[in-house]
Amino acid sequence: MYNSAGAQPPHDQNAPDAKEMRSVVLTGFGNLSKIKVYKSPYPIVGPGEVLIRVQACGINFQDLLVRQGVVDNLPNTPLILGYEAAGYVEALGEGAEGFPVGAPVIAFTRYGSMAEYVVAPTSRCYRMPQGMSFEDGAALLLNYVTAYLILFHVVSIKKDKIALIHSAGGGVGCAAAQLCNLLDNVTLIGTASKCKHEQLRKMGLYTYLFDRYQQEYIDEVKQLSPYGVDVVLDSVAGENVAKGINLVKPMGHYVLYGSSSSLLNDLPPPGTSNLADGVGAKAGGGGILGSTFSGFGMTKQQITSAAGAPLSKWLPTQKVNQWWQVEKVNPIKLFEDNRSIGGFNLINLLFDQGQHDLVQEVVRELFRLYKENKIKPVIDSTWAMEEVCEAMQRMQEHKNVGKLLIVTSQLPRNTHNNNPQQ
Q: Using one digit for the tens of pLDDT, what is the confidence trace for 378-388?
């Protein structure tokens, strides 16, 4: 039995394999070999919940971090991955109102959405506006809600400001850029891999683009704006935290909303065709396993042998990968410099802190902007469920511009892997 799964037949009782569905299952923590497409039972729809027949679901960087076990509050495995889905209402639990069967909806989940069916409470389901595709719905939900809440609730960005956005080509980066461009005279500085610059320029989202891997973007930014920037949105963490805080001008804001630098380099060597074969973490290859790791007295062999387990099993604390690269923040210094720093985690806001009404309000506003053609989700690519490892590898290699989606009806590009495992 998988987490977030139960046993409930779908609305169509005559459908083949009526009590089973395909799902993306994390079998344990580690590399891509831990991801499997299995047949699993339909989830049980409980009181106040909606059963959704999924048409599209998002792949997020958080899925990669969960796969490797480098997040706090690790879930139990096996579990079905995924945080957001778009599809049709298939059935309603007792007391669930406002969602007629057959209505198109999008929903937040804490795991479980990378499947053909998923359940979600009505408080985290949203009726899609007319004309919105399921792909756009799945691409909009987590990324645009995150960007909107950071920009207009956490930092209250205004016209004539300067914003620096890391991971400019990612889903949140593209969303934040579109939302900033709704304001007058906002200067947007983005950092992204060099291979993404041409496409981002064609999209016209950013005023300036830098490659933080190839150039010292701090000097470049200070040449453009000697006093710094008004807003820094950081999804990378690590050494970028101190750099970002120091770039913030008086009355400016630094916001951390991710930690992609925590991800291990566990991809297969170039030219390896089977993503599930022989994939091991590479010591000293970047991310959290940089040169500073030697301070813990572990050999390369010890690191490699331990890499199959979640970090919480082989590091002194789950927070180690954060604090060894992050300078301590001095509140007195912030007071003297008139700077603000903050953090944002949408999943915690929804699932642990109960801010459903706030998110409902933001989703309604985003739907309005979508219907008025003021925002349009940037979709990098869509994938069959059986291609989830290839999609995750594309994201981990930082090749995507915009959102990666699983479309449940899409057939795999390669026919050798088109049967889910029993």
A: 999 999 999 99
